[in-house]
Fold each of these.
Amino acid sequence: MSKADIGLIGLAVMGENLVLNMESHGFCAAVYNRSVEKVDRFIAGRGKGKKFIGCHSVAELCDNLKAPRRIMMMVKAGKPVDELIEQLLPHLDKGDILIDGGNSFFQDTIRRTNYLKEKGINFIGTGVSGGEEGALLGPAIMPGGAPEAWPEVKPIFQAIAAKVAGGRPCCEWVGSDGAGHYVKMVHNGIEYGDMQMICEAYWILKNLLGFSAAELHEEFASWNKGDLNSYLIEITSNIFTKVDPDTGKPVVDIILDAAGQKGTGKWTSQSALDLGVAAPTVAEAVFARCLSAVKEERVAASKIIGGGLKTQFTGDRKAFAEKVRKALYASKICSYAQGFQLMKQAAKEYGWQLNYGEIALLWRGGCIIRAQFLDKIKAAFDKKPDLANLLLDDFFRSEIASCESAWREVVSQAVLAGLPVPAFTSALSYFDGYRSAVVPANLLQAQRDYFGAHTYERVDRNRGEIFHTEWTENSGKTVSGTYTA
């Protein structure tokens, strides 16, 4: 039997679908899973009659691969990846390629790239987005790591990736060491924000305007035909059509309001804090999930503190629903602006040459946040590659201006009604903060200098000149060193 083009380890749903995708594009794959019965089931089931080589050990898998070996690992992030690498190393030769297709932390990918380089093995940390359907039919793929490995995997990755206008694959080399996994992490952080903002729009329509499931379906379906056209809006519209056969209620109404998470949103927020980048909308989306998780505590609090609507809406429901759409759209623009700001700062910190227009294109198809307006983000960076912030682009500045009044009204009405809208409000605060020539941080610096002699700069002197005031008779002339914690 001829040897396989690529090996894949980890036959969970994503792994299975990826190799089926590869096989459908003419590639032969060797497959292995720690629970070897999964291999046998796959070969006898979904893989029956197709170009697969089932393997019962990592040694057998390595023996059945063409040189240089290309092995994609689809296992749980963290320690399992390191353990699998150590199992594979004795069976690899210099120039072989290991690919981590899971949601690994980018710092781990940087470490693994350097570790394997010393052993002559090329490592690629690859973000894969699109869920199980995307894996099978065409995901967005974000590879980064050892640049010399890219030509070896490019034909396979670009063949199986989603395609957009002109047949362009949603897969391109992102950058060195951890760049691919970092961009995937930010994708997931933006996804957290998108989902939370959609939930807030739904909550306003349902609770303030009294929309039924059927009306919610129609409203989101109409939104999907315009500026908000996206995968998440599409599936949200579909969700409202599903009825539970046991209760006759919409399925969404019988699902417990306690959200789960796997950590990538948290990592995005942590990275923003580490790099000193304002990304409040992603952070609020993470915190909203955390707050949702304490269901029993919230139920108890609602009985003690009180809950429910503080006001009733008496205006034109349809007209206000359009304002909710505009609020969602404006908030979305701000959320994406934050994500791209974060990637720009990370590129400086880690020495990556990120192409932001290409990243927007990678996200245009296949992935969870795929949306029509990503074309506009690509156009913005194509026009000005060093664009400081999406909010400064002519198109997005105009779009925000057309939504601003409605956005403020929706946030105000939600707050007056006692409806939590952390993503909407954080996005609006980000917008107001970013466009403010002056903010109250002068008082903050005075406070810091008062209690800790942390010094400050002056508006009437050059940036970088440091001053200190002796605020009380006990103040000394010794000042604190400046640093960023």
Amino acid sequence: MQQRVMIAMALASEPKLLVADEPTTALDVTIQAQILDLLKDLKQRLGMSVLLITHNLGIVGEIADRVAVMYAGQIVELAPARELLGRPLHPYTQGLISSVPQLRTRARRLNAIPGNVPAGIFPSGCRFHPRCPKVRGDCAGREPGLIEVEPNRWVRCPYWADELSD
């Protein structure tokens, strides 16, 4: 009920953009679905945009048109939601999606991204390089920019298309 009250308060001024920061956190699955349905309905009925901030990739697939994946305060991949979820290009996005448990498989262990998130002080160069499976010698020395690798598809990694080598 508190989530609905907060949404009602946010809509009172008829905004063009609703910022929803973790709107389904700590809610059971049934209430999560109701909140998501409410957001989708309001978005369509009022013609407003919704900026959804979440760690839940299931919600992303349910409601988002476009997705920006962030790591250590930077966008590392920006793409239409279906394309990004179906074919992630940045190594961090690939790690995130592969870490989601799959109901159809009998994996004993979840996939995890090795290493730790930087704690306040970011590494030089690419912020993801200490944890990246595609790391190269120059990753620590230069910070990559966002590059458009396909129409409407942006990635912050010059090696996004390289296969793993070892």
Amino acid sequence: MLRAGIVGLPNVGKSTLFNALTRTRKAPAANYPFCTIEPNVGVVTVPDTRLAPLARISKTSTIVPAAIEFVDIAGLVRGASQGEGLGNKFLQHIREVDAIIEVVRCFEDKDVVHVSGKLDPVADMETIQTELVLADLETATRSKEKAEKAARGGDAEARASLGALEKLLEHLNTGRRALTLPLTPEEGAVVRRLFLLTSRPILFAANVSEESLAGADASPLVRAVRHYAETHLGTEAVAVSAQIESELAELPEEEARDYLAQLGVSESGVGNLIRAAYHLLGLRTFFTASEKEARAWTIHAGDTAPKAAAVIHSDFERGFIKAETVSYDDLLAAGSMAAAKEKGLVRQEGKDYVVADGDVILFRFNV
């Protein structure tokens, strides 16, 4: 299961958001820096409105959604790359996740201490960006020094890697993330071995107050976060109120909907955040549906039918024959699998077929 790490400066609402996402109280949330030290881990289901209609068509009451793992990581401070705060321990925890969700404080609260003494979301984003780049510069510099030494000793592989490392260092020295560096396949192989912090895709969660959630899109602070995310990092930001989400997590589903309606909000930010994180990780969903269950399965964008089959069971890939496939929209319009077949909407796909998000598949195999 792929992991998304929740990071940010201290006291921005990371642990509160983690608890809301996972519907647990694993992560301590307190008004002082570093109340989280060891990372907390929780599995989160991915909201998908397609599952309930699919279950009705299949005449099943069992629904199994897709899931990803979220990790709540201790707060970072300026100088972390040089060991400040939890320093290297914090950075190592980031190396162990597949994507980063950075929580940015966009709320005023005199009772919640801001580690920098003032509210400035863009400055906070720049602080973390700088620390991650500095840590990667140190990693890349050490790797280049080792490669140069090995190259002098006649190591051909080390000599071949030097060009990629020099290109990487030049890029990082401009303050840009490794993820945005164009690389050849050979250069990419060299850089991947470094497990760089800035090679992970990143998504921002703009944490707003309860009063600001309904009008978050018009908030100057949220707009500033979104502008910086798009122009500097080529990514997006989702507005969320960690405090509201923690309260919603305690309520039954109907009461939670009523509470959101009172706030003038149609959907909580957590659903949007989970879906955005899912796609940030390059994940897509296909479905299987029968009287037993309607189930969402997770694959990577670009995976072929046999790779998708392997997610269910390795035997499905080993003995793959074909994939009987219909798109979710076509199946929904037809009303049943039998009707979809009668209308010629069910396709027989082979080993080279790239599975599309929303495909409903029955795999045929023989082992």
Amino acid sequence: MGVGKIGLALGGGAARGWAHIGVLKALINAGIKPDIVAGTSIGAVVGGCYVAGHLDAIEDFARELTRRRVFGYLDFNFTGTGLISGQRLCERLDKHLGDRSIEELDRRFVAVATEIGSGREIWLSRGRLVDAVRASYALPGIFRPVKVNNRWLFDGALVNPIPVSVCRALGARYVIAVNLNFDISSRGAIVQESHTNPGELTVDDEPQPVTGKNGVAMRRLLQRQLFGRGEDAPGISTVMVEAFNIVQDRIARSRLAGDPPDAMISPRLHGIGLFDFHRAEELIHYGEMAAKREIEDMTREISARRESTQLTPWRG
């Protein structure tokens, strides 16, 4: 690998990952083109499309999503190991990435995944790009796991939510990290509730009949159960992903403390949910703005290191 490489670590965060698109656009416009890209979960999706030359395609896909279209991509699977098989999403990725292998890309790319059973952190740096990306975003319980090289894998955010360490290991001397869950960190305080009124506790046990033709009622039931029936009734997916995200945030803070990046980009995404895939326009904008806030400092630091021969010029 040599010395002087610039690394980009793209973190997980479900729908918030569209902010990575804005970050990359800002970096490109500033002339900062990383030699190494490591992604976890949605970070692997956007990062993989970027290194394959399809950043515009993934942006177009994200911007065309509506609530209805998001639900249309969810192919429910009640007999496997996840609520969603992910085949429809896989077909869309195949359309853009095809059979491209990671080895064919013009720069280093790694998708981080977790091995079922052993809990090992797996760095996918060879083989089909689509398979690596799918394994990295296979959220436990939501998407079914993916078998790669005889290993069953799921979401890498369980072990390395923001893969700074991967960039370092591949020779990056300057690492830019993107943290999509910065606002969640501020929610880590302990709150003691000592005066709860038992009469205020409620249980959402309203029965939902399954009736109707052509599966319409079932579809609506699934939508309510997965995405909730309002602010006071979070759906299954929201509960699962929020719980997963809290764990991811704690792991990320621990790992970043031991191996901090040289620059951190933290989009301000308060109020944007983890399943708000239809809000791509806002997310891309927030990502771009967050990157622009850091670009002046990053450019100065990169130039200073280059002048001191610690960094070689990045590839244009």
